[in-house]
Amino acid sequence: MSSDVLKKRKSKVLRSEAGTPEVKRGRGEADQQDVRVYNEEVELDGRNPEQDFDQYKESCEALSKLMSEIQRMKASGAKEGSMDVEQKRMQSCILFMNLKKLNRLAHMRLKRGRDQTHEAKQRVDVLHLQLQNLLYEVMHLQKEISKCLEFKSKHEEIDLVSEEEFYQDAPPEISRPSLTKTDPHQLTLARLDWELEQRKRLAEKYKDSQATKEKIQKSIEVKKEHLRSLQPGLNAIMQASVPVQEYLSMPFEQTQKQAEIARHLPPPLYVLFVQSNAYGQACDRNLIVSISGDVDEAKALSKPPDDSQDDESDSDAEEEQEKTKRRRPTTGGQLDDKRREMLKRHPLSLCLDLKCKDGSVLHLYFFYLMNLNIMTVKTKVSTTTDLSSAISAGELLKSDTLLSCLYTNDQGRETPNPANRYQFDKVGIVSFADYVEDLGYPYMWVQNLGGLHFPSESSEGVLVGSSLSASHMESTMKLLRGRVQSRLALQKQFASLEHNIIPVSSECQHLFPAKIISRLARWTTISHQEYMDLPYTRHVTEAGLAKETDLFFMGVLERGTARLHAAVVLSPRYPAIAPLFSLSLNWKGECSGRTDDNLRAMESEVNIFKHELQGPRPGHQLLTNQIARMCVCLDVYLETEGQDVSVEGPREFPREKMCLRTVRGPSRLKPFKYNHPQGFFSHR
């Protein structure tokens, strides 16, 4: 093929690539190249990407065919500079130039697409910022509207009469119907004026009632004098009716004697005596009230001091001074005497016996410290059965822990009367907690039962009286009975737990599967310091959930080579406040709830979902149900754990529980929720 033919074909390819007539080369060649670059950008809008792609594939196929022909010609012996080889080579160069152009067009399309995407993103960002600004403005307006709606005026706290009664009863000069019916503001002002007028009338009526009351009281005093004159005859009749009282089991005489003794009680004990008797007669026949102590000494205290004695003679005074000079007491002896005098109790005390359904009795002994103006209590529990078998339950029925925190944060270690601090400073008493074992515990609810109220702003105790005592009597008696029943139930449960038996009642059997392989290996009590020293309970102590008033226990669950340690915090207010479990597993290493998500999920099963384990009210079986749930969770944990395929032989923990899914999620949580009555385990 001649060189002229090749030149003609080359010119045709160039015209097809450029889409414009061939430009002659010569002077101004750089300017012509700039025009070509511009024409390619303009040409890009008119070209079809699919056609360019088809042209790209055709060029690649043609180039591949030319290369194969050149290789075949060289293999057949054609020389390097022969005409055919050069012709094929020129055609390949033309195709390669076409590929480069297509590549440039593809890159230009890519750049244009990226620019369009960036512009669209910028428009979206601008619109998003405008939306956020509008949302902030809406939020600000909503807050302002809420403030306006929540505004409360002082007159809203006054319970005004209805509008119908106002227009019906109020005079026209106050109601002014022509103005108030169209103006709500004027209506409110008129109603307030009418309220003021009514209160003035009621004040006048109150004064008249007080005058009538005084007249009635005078007539009552006259009648009382007449009744006092009948007392000797009534005493004779009562004495003659003693045999009849004994026969009918109606001890009026004993009740009368107790009432006579009660007259010498100090005011707080007397308020408690009256209110407890009234509550026992009205609501609780199992509440027995009795008074003990030295009545004669109480009578001597109630007598006023005798100021009618003659002054001593000068000679007697001189002799007394000489005796005191010879025997002067030491400073320590004086302080001890002052402490004893300050901590002196009233000679009479009150005993309340609160009987429970199971035959157990809670004995409450109330004392009154005269100089400190506070009441204290001591406790004792009597049961029909021997409960001394459980070692871990030794703290449950002790006097210092039995009634601790009956109400929230009421530990009874310090005096509730603020004035006592200044009294203690004078006699060198550092803390009242050093004397509670002998004097009793000054719980706040004890002061309330006695009608004593110690406001934080005042330094002296105020005897509020029967109203305060009555308001606390019923709730306190229920709490006391509930506390004794819960402690006795825990006593029996601990006896079983120490023998590695988890007692589960028939009402709670549906909460657990029929087969539980993990077992309780050990149950012991631990101290507060030992609990704080455990590494896996640090988050509980840092959160303030473990207090010195709580009880602490350690349980160990076993199955095969796995041992699960459970540190338990038992609140004095159990079961109102559920026990708190912290777990640590020793199997293939040691892990805890802070390092293992599945152990944290096991803690959640007993700590967070405790309402599922309450059982029948009042929920005394919550602790044992939580321990049983821990055994079930340990079974699921071990049975769903993957086995090492490199170890031959049977699995250490064969799968006994039916699970829908063994693990779920990135943390590989196991199914700890038991579904009754289907009997399978699932995830929460």
Automatic annotation (TrEMBL):
Protein family (similarity comment): Belongs to the THOC5 family.
InterPro entries recorded: THO_Thoc5
Cellular localization per UniProt: Nucleus
Gene Ontology molecular functions: mRNA binding
Predominant location category: nucleus
Name of the protein in question: THO complex 5
Cross-referenced Pfam families: FmiP_Thoc5 (PF09766)
GO terms under cellular component: THO complex part of transcription export complex
Single GO BP term: mRNA export from nucleus
Gene this chain is encoded by: THOC5
Positions of region (Disordered): 1-34, 298-339
Assigned keywords, A-Z: Nucleus
Compositionally biased spans, kind Acidic residues: 307-321
UniProt biased composition (Basic and acidic residues): 22-34
